[in-house]
What we know:
Layout: H1 2-14, H2 21-31, H3 36-55, H4 63-75, H5 82-95, E1 98-103, E2 106-107, E3 113-120, E4 124-131, H6 134-141, H7 147-155, E5 161-166, E6 175-182, E7 188-195, E8 207-214, E9 217-222, E10 225-230, E11 241-246, E12 259-265, E13 271-273, H8 279-282, E14 286-290
Helix pairs in contact: 2-3, 3-4, 3-5, 4-5
Amino acid sequence: FFQAEDGIRDKLVTGVQTCALPISLKNIITGHQGQPAADQARYMEAEWYRNRFSEDPENPVNHLLTARSICEEVLLRRDSSEGRENCRRLLEELREKKLSLAAEKVNLPRQPFRMLATYKNITETYIRIIPVEDRLREAYFSRETSPDALRRAMAATEPLRSYRQSLPGMDDLKEHRVELGMEGLPPGLYVILSSLRPDFDDSANILCMLPVHISSLSWINVNEHYYALHRETGTPLPGAEAEVWYQPAVNPGETPVFSRGPRYIADSLGHFTIQLPGLESYLPIKIDLRWKGD
């Protein structure tokens, strides 16, 4: 059996004669019913079906469900075989919940925008819209704040909005994507925080944190010449305030940090020139634009 098992494993890895693989495994399973060897063969069969799905995810036959069914059958046996343990791990992987969010980095004020949710084995999520202001803003931009600490700080902040979002999908173990409509927001920096739990506790949970800027401001440049423009219409923004942040050179091994640079006022054409000695050595720079409350 072990020689046959090794040969089958080689075919799994190399892809040779994969069409005949289930038949070979069924022969081993039939000849070793009730034995630990049969459990391992069934695990390899389930793994093969999962690989079939990865190779052809659009196939109308969902091989993930077949793999799940095989693992569930093996787990009905009350033993401690290697095959049973492998099936338990594979079943956990198939049932694993996943969620991620994506949106345009900058969206226009008070206009609806779209957010893309990518998820697996999830039917709903809870969403909070968190304004990043005052002390929370300091924690957000601080390099000393760990991602976990930042998520906990966000979860403890009073949200601007909070609601439950249903996610379309079926019990098919597949990854799904859906665009969600988001209500418009006033100008500012926000974090869209999502959670599988309504209390947003970080234990046994998936907390997603998506930063979104809401602004009608933008800029373009040619070398040191910059132009402040309206993000939607492209019209110049005379009187716009531009504050420059740059990264001074640091010694090897040190973490670079952004330092506050000079501030400029755009002229009637929205133009301003950054006069920072050695500008090319400070790239990339950040520009904080402000104009009429935005």
